[in-house]
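Continued from yesterday's entry.
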Amino acid sequence: MNIDIADEGFGAIAEYARVPIAFEVRAVLDVVARDGGLGGLLLAERSVDAPYLKNYDALDGGPAGWAARFDVSSWGLLVARSGRRVIGGAAIAFDTAGVEMLEGRRDLAVLWDLRVAPEARGRGAGSALFRAAEAWAAARGCRRMKIETQNVNVPACRFYAARGCVLGAIHRFAYPGLPHEAQLLWYRELAPAE
């Protein structure tokens, strides 16, 4: 598959938002606290009895609402195309007041969103987008990229681990409305831009 990636900016948000982010949850990573947590936390993969669809866009309105909630003027919006068709994208948050995930730092970028069309998954678009997001962040002087996912997104966890990301935090109680989900924060050290 021929994949072209470009930072198209938020003028391309409507096309970007049409790429579905939904996935089927077939397994979860249960967070097991050993000795009340003093013995550490363990992630144990477990198949779910009844697979279900998880759609992050349905929870927060998706990409079309980002500009109304945040100042996206410093963000990157990478779009992956195969021919003229949009097959994926990545949004990178950077230097934005009010985005807690950025911790008020200018040397940190957050991979806010990464999506690949279902028919293009497993064909290299996600990896290409991830590399492009790393390059985008490094070009702005970032030393690290942070990624949030949940314990219900086992494929994403495996994807980030395979790209050299390290699990830096597990927040079991991050989502009061979704008590069965835990927040997982991944970090990727970035090489300085050339």
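--- second protein ---
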Amino acid sequence: MLYRKIGITRIAIVCFAIWSFKSVEVAAKNADWTEAKKTGAATAGAWKEWCENWRHQGNAPVQMTLTPGKDESELNFSWYSTEDDLESNIRVADNEQFEGAIYLRVITKKATKGFNYNRAIVANLQANKTYYYSYMVAGRWTKAYEFQTKDSSNFQFVFVGDVQIGSSYDNIPEGEEEEQGQERAVCNDSFNWNATLQAAYKRAKNLSFIVTAGDQIQSGNFKNSEATYKTFRENEIEYAGYLLPELLRKIPVATTIGNHDCLSGNYSYHFNNPNSKMGYGATYAGEDYYFSYGDTIFLMLNTNNENADEHEAFIEKALSSNKDARWRIVAMHQDIFGSGEHSNDEEIVSLRKALLPVFRKYDIDLALAGHDHTYARAFIADARGLTIFMNHYAIIERESKRIIQLYAKACNDIVCYSSCQGILFLTANSSSGSKYYKLIEKQQDYIEAR
């Protein structure tokens, strides 16, 4: 939980990974994984039911995606339809019968082969109210889906690490001799992803939205993406698995672009991100975007584009449009203050050196990241003497250590800190169990917990 030193604004963040699931040693380099059928969530027929549901809906990524709008008064929609589905429509009302419903303007464009993507935005939403929506699939209205707006002056959001559906494809299930392959991996990983969402929702029923650290899916054309990013289809089955959990029909998700997402245009088809056409931080999947919620601004950086000058220009422009924002939160994929095997990569060290001064310049309070599939927490104090940042390491003085110890003692699962004294960096674990990396052998001085 983050507390501003001045004022009473507070934000509760629930950071989830599948902590209680057993990791299984496998031959895949640097990675363990969670075999879904062996988890506690798979009991009482839940795993069998999920597999049957997956076989029924599999490889058809037509589920609705909800994304936060530009502020708390809006909600963004995006969904796929088949190319021969000539009518796309969506309606929103405050009742399940859709009496007095608003029919939203839908923009339809071509997605991957066989599909179009559809986008719509509902505006003028009232706080603390229940709404319903329905959209057309193959000429028929879907059932009524419910979503609830919250109080933006005191809200919760859930932060999750790399979902990376399909990443367990080269693992061998217990009792078998061959790798499970993509389709079984998607079923396995999406089951675990659903379990994480259910656990998060059980604990934080008042959440307004979810923030991801990127890498929603696994597959991309790493060798020839420039030629295929508009036509690559091999990850659509993984997006179908990512979108399968029913909770995603009612909870908006603000996604970050990961290094696996950024190699195809499909990410940009599935997610209708607000303020996403500013021209900064672009890759094949999209670019930097932002949204505000109450007195908080969320700055979603596409750090697969390593141009720190572009990210700084984006942050400056976004903040100039939100001068009243008291909280400034960055979300990005690459964990510049993590402690996993990526943390010493050249690109990470370079981003660390380039972005920290930018974050300090613009008074960022919290930076959320993933990429390493291992939890880490680092409080990097401001430049006024608590922390000296030198040679890509943090030399923490005695007073800074004392403060960090006080934060750690607050509670087992709550971290309190004064945002006036520095930036809190959080790196999330895997939220699907599709892949776990190892921590580096020697913990960096800047890491408070991992």
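The longest helix spans residues 181-203. The first strand starts at residue 2 and ends at 3. Will compare against the first tomorrow.
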